[in-house]
Amino acid sequence: MADLDYKVIVGLEIHVHLATKTKIFCGCELAYGDTANTHVCPVCLGMPGSLPVMNKTALEYSILTGLALNCEIAKFTKWDRKSYYYPDLPKNYQISQYDLPFSEHGYIEIPLESGETKKIRILRAHLEEDAGKNTHTLGNFSAIDLNRAGTPLLEIVTEPDMNSAEEVGALARELQRIVRYLGVSEGDMQKGHMRFEPNINLHITKNGEVFKTPISEVKNLNSFRAVERSVAYEVRRQLAAFEETGVTMQMGNKATYGWDDDKQMTVLQREKEEAHDYRYFPDPDLVPVDIDDAWLGEIKGRLCELPIQMQVRFAKEYGLSDYDAGVLTADRATAEFFDGTVKLGADAKRVCNLLTQTGLKLANEKGVSVDQLRISMENLAKLAKMADGGDVSASAATTIFEEMAENGGDPAQIAEAKNLVQKSDAGEIEALVDAVLAENAKAVEDAKNNPKKGKKAMGFLMGQVMQKSKGQANPKIVSQLLNQKLNV
Amino acid sequence: MTTKIDEAQVRRVALLGRLELSDEEVAQFSGQLSDIVTYIEKLNELDTDNVEPLAHCLPVHNVLREDVPKPSLTNDQALANAPARENEYFKMPKVLGDNSGA
Ligand SMILES: [Zn+2]
Q: How close is the Cα of A133 to the center of ligand 1, in Å?
């Protein structure tokens, strides 16, 4: 197996729940975890004679996402019926988009381990309704909850441009970050807001010839870990199957798999691609939608700087590590709060440290976002400048940050009140240094003449001066004075 | 007259529609459906070369509603017509090889 040269080919189909208040075609409220069948009406129950009416916000959220995914937005889009019979789909057809999706031909940029980005092409994105839930089985019967039926669902289909499990995971996470930035979905995996279906196969080169393994589709994955692990597992399984039998891709040998999280393996569901016959046709209950330039322009106005763009900019313009830039851009509130503070003239690295080491932890404890702590961007910028200017030590800056987060207030006043202002007055500090040198002849001797103990002795003297100043002396100046006086 | 819809096609359509047909019915529907298709084929006589495909027969576009919640049915109302229920749920025959989730 080891000597086979192969390339992993993965395309992804993603379903995203949109964060509208109501369902896509009726006024039933979207509610997660509520009593079964209490958010249903004649429309979403598929009762004869009821008529669906399109939710404007669902359509606008979809278009906004399409724009963020660099798609071409169709000027004319319509709704189709896709027939299939399952009890969780009460109409016996799903309203979807077939030949005229609202968006096509885009791309998503994903971050790679190397710090670079890669473009994955988007084939299309269309809007459809979710089915209900087959909650549990009762012998030969199923219990059906239709609260979810009619939830607006954005289906995004990528081209097979991903070449590893890590890239698939990166795309899934990036998409989550995008829909959250845009505010079009909560992207909560626990609530099933995002479901993934990777299509995986290998291009194996053997004796100068390229062999393609049969494509596996893994259905309904609802965690990033499951997506990554199922792809990694399929790569191993397909390699082994090829080694053993030499099986290659042919018409109709695409297979459908599920993911067994307990056994950490994919499980065959259907061997042969069934001749699906969805019998799509235009839904006569819904009229088409024209998207004119004015409307599209208005939706474009709601776009924000995308997370990956911010992450790259923070690394490039502000000199942050890719890791720090990633942490700061994990959510939009933090990214914008950071960016705004730096734009007020504060040092990026200093603000980054205050936010990532203290701010995010406090915000997390309080269950709010960083910008909802009681600190304004102005006061954070001021604090960062105080720390950079040596007016307060790094640890004092943390203390002041915590105080501001709790009770608000001005950092300079807090520093004063809490006695945290550093002494930078050279004359005052010099007196302390002289006193310490006089009291510690042995350490002075080591610092000057003992190459083995010099460093340690210097540290000791430094500590003594800081202690004498009750921690208020500016360590930079103390260090300068010590070096000067000991002539090291 | 030629058979436009043969018996195999009738059986396939019946399967897609989850209908159980007797052999007599299959033969009967094959004839009836073929007649219907023959009748509809009259439309092919029209020249549609320069006619845009129609997505909808109404000259109306953009019928949209604001995202504002409306009252739903109660659980009992929702289940009033259900052939069977189990507490708050619809009770349905189990589907094998379930591939739901759209
Ligand atoms: Zn409803």
A: 15
